[in-house]
Amino acid sequence: MTLVNIKGLKVSFRQHGGQIDAVRGVDIQLAEGESLGIVGESGSGKSVSCLALMRLLPNTATITADRLELDGVDVLKAKPRQMAALRGKVAALIFQDPATTFDPVFTIGHQMVETIRTHRDVSKETALAEAEQLLLKVEIKNAKDILNYYPHQLSGGMLQRAMIAMALSCRPKVLIADEPTTALDVTIQAQILQLIKGLQAEMGMALIMITHDLGVVAETVDRVVVMYGGRVMEEGTVDQIFDTPKHSYTQSLLASLRAGESRRAEPGTGEPIAPALELRNLSKVYALRRRGRIFSTYVDFPAVRGVNLVLPRNKIVGLVGESGSGKSTTGMMAMRLLEPTSGQILVDGTDISKLDTGALKAFRRRMQVVFQDSYSALDPMMTLSQIIAEPLNIHGVKSSREQTEEALSWLERVGMDRSFGNRYPHELSGGQRQRVAIARALILGPSVLVADEPTSALDVTVKAQIIGLLKNLQQQMGLSMLFISHDLSVVRSLTDSVVVMYKGRVVEQAPTANIFANPRHPYTRSLLDAIPVTNPRERRQRSFITADDIAAGMPRLSRSSLAAEATAGDLPQLVSVAPGHLVEAIVTN
Amino acid sequence: MIVYLIKRLLSVAVTFFIVSLVIFLMMHAVPGGPFTEKDMPLSEAVKAQLNARLGLDQPLWVQYVNYMAGVLQGNWGVPYQSPGETVISLLQQAWLPSLILGGSGVIIGAALGILIGMAAALKRNSWIDYLASTLSVLGLTIPVFVISMLLILIFAVWLNWLPASGWGKPERWILPIAAYAAIPLATYARYTRSAMLDTLNRPFVTALRAKGLSERRIIFQHVLRNSAIPMVTVFLPMFMGTATGSIFVEAMFRIPGLGSYFVSSITNRDYPLEMALVLMFTIGICFAYLISDLVYAWLNPRIRLGDDAQ
């Protein structure tokens, strides 16, 4: 039986200057128990279509459709009461960012009980017991405690599990997941996807997975609809879409997904003279405030612990790890945008970690940074040419006319039109803003560029363009780049070598090809294992490891198996297992 | 929690002493004194005698210490303008009209303002919304004595429905209460509207709809409670401000409330009364903020439980 029947759906939004057509004629069908992926970038109309089906769009939206049916009910004609009965009961929604989709002032338990009692006539106690069972079902161990927690007390992964549990509480016929893992770390993403997949099979629900990530689709669904610009571009089984994509947009999506697999390691060209950037035993300790009864005490929290890192000239080094691993802190300390607690930072062989502001300024010309959030990284009150020319201005290079001219030529160099020079950041798309940020970073001709997750806020096709731009400029200018990312597929396609950080330490580093072919540290393995597959046939059951597993799985290597000398000891140390391949291990005799 | 309360109470005490010192010094820094007026038909000898009896001839710090010692024992002194009674008994009479009229004005105004603000937020860009915006702009821009005059003109002079001024019978209360209510109504309509719109635009409201909750439950259970968080911080301080009497409203409606004493105690150089009024107001405001903060924490688990994740 058809559970969802959408024919000729059109949605437009009234706005100040007229109207925006978000969905322009979409047909989607979904049978009971079926799993469907809707893929497209932001603005493609994929979320709007599903919200229209639930009648959850704001009043400014005008919805028309030949058919818009959920479980046989015409939702365009349904009364509010009828619609409320369908929501949650027939179709349940999971949203992108679990941190904002719970009401912050009520406990998880309260909100779950509320959902259950909205649709079923059961007592509070029964509902609470049921909520506990549901939390256990989504693999939350201390379910009873979690019921009494407020949303802000839980991590993103935990909250998304609780959200799923809540969505399942009325046994919906279809679960609509709108980018359910975009806001989560890659290891958590894999766990959540596997959980959703398992529950769907177990409960016999239908599933609509809305995502911009083809990898997520390959992991979870049977059939795929590809959307672009408010229309369906292509539809087919997941195998068809991956094997024989018909539409050029699908092909470009697949190409950006698979970009990482084609790159092979180039043969080493001998050791360089002095590295562009070298970090020696760099540490950052934050004093955390613990509130006591009367006095507060401070506890040391080491965010980065003794990191050694070498960025050779004209190379790209990837720095990977989950959020909280200390990778961004390391990057910011390398730029001296954060003061290190101890350790040395060598730029072209000079230690800059102790230089005062004046002496540092000369070095600032050689090292630049591109941030993740291009919106907050650009001054909203300045035009693009002012923004790009500002570094020249700060360092007093050239006359102001020449500065503007150079800024405009850099606009072109990063693939934008000169006419954009007088525009302001808010007039640009995320990708364009990131191009401006790159132009600003490179206009002084630096030798070192730190890119801190420069693409993680971008759509997948735009991401590929920005990566391409960075790669070209890096080759043209002979840049040495430290590329900080949690996106391993990007790291694979871009970098020469990879440094893996975990809990503030470097646990493994090696040439990119080696890391992906032969990861030695358990944490690296778990990171790699969590990457969504690029081919639906490679789907597999994953076994997730916890922090305890990682600690227990610490490699133990005998001295004879090492590539370089090391002394045996009980404490983990970074040892060489192959030329250029270091891993944290315990060395035995 | 108890430690927090003790800390806050200590800070109230510190504020109290700082304010008392500053006011005391300012009061005496103004040239002149209670009996220095030119037209006062008193001989120099009598003035000196009066000053001596009231302790005004002693060094300033002695006066301050004596005064504060009295205050700590509950003795707020005798007002110079009516030596027959104590400051406390004078204020007790004056407090009642201000509290009744000002208090009910704030409560009625805030309640109406919240309702209007809610309606405006829920029916955004409708006539209700425009009416609410107009009302709140008018309420905030027209001075309260102009509003009072308009009320008297319309309801007492033209329509002759209500008495124009005075104190006593309840029908005399209606116009001043309306005048008192204007500012809280305008403020609250505006606050409520923007707080509700903020909350309504947050993703969790869509998530609540997606769960199938009725619109009524979403508004009253979730949106209101979240919107109340920024609103509680305004209410009690405003209540204190109005319930201690408005000079203008009381003057317009000839109400024997606290407001007029604020003015007369200063012009008459009535030191004990001036100090008592300012200090009581200080304590009131301090406690209003303390209670607001407690309610704020009670409503907002993030504050109550600290911000540490996990």
Walk me through what this model shows.
The complex is a heterodimer of chains A (589) and B (310). Chain A has 589 residues and is of the alpha/beta class. In chain A, strands 14, 17, 18, 19, 20, 21, 22, 23 and 24 form a 9-stranded mixed β-sheet that branches. In chain A, strands 7-8-9-3-10-11 form a 6-stranded mixed β-sheet, sandwiched between helices. In chain A, strands 1, 2, 4, 5 and 6 form a 5-stranded antiparallel β-sheet that branches. In chain A, strand 18, helix 18 and strand 19 form a beta-alpha-beta unit. In chain A, helix 15 (384-394) runs parallel beside helix 17 (430-442). The longest helix of chain A has 18 residues, at 186-203. The chains are: A alpha/beta (589), B mainly alpha (310). The interface between A and B is medium-sized, with 37 and 30 residues.
Molecular shape of chain A: globular
Q: How many distinct beta strands of chain A?
A: 24
The main pleated sheet of chain A reads as: 9 strands, mixed
* CA radius of gyration of chain A: 26 Å
Order of helices and strands of chain B: HHHHHHHHHHHHH
Helices and strands, with pairings:
The complex is a heterodimer of chains A (589) and B (310).
Chain A: E1 2-15, E2 18-31, E3 35-39, H1 46-53, E4 61-64, E5 67-70, E6 73-74, H2 80-86, E7 91-94, H3 98-101, H4 108-119, H5 124-137, H6 143-146, H7 156-168, E8 174-178, H8 186-203, E9 206-211, H9 214-220, E10 223-228, E11 231-237, H10 238-243, H11 248-262, E12 277-291, E13 296-311, E14 316-320, H12 327-334, E15 342-347, E16 350-351, H13 357-364, E17 367-370, H14 374-377, H15 384-394, H16 400-413, H17 430-442, E18 448-452, H18 460-477, E19 480-485, H19 488-494, E20 497-502, E21 505-511, H20 512-517, H21 522-529, H22 547-552, E22 556-558, E23 573-578, E24 581-588
Chain B: H1 2-29, H2 44-53, H3 60-72, H4 87-122, H5 127-141, H6 144-158, H7 174-200, H8 203-210, H9 215-243, H10 247-252, H11 258-267, H12 271-299, H13 301-304
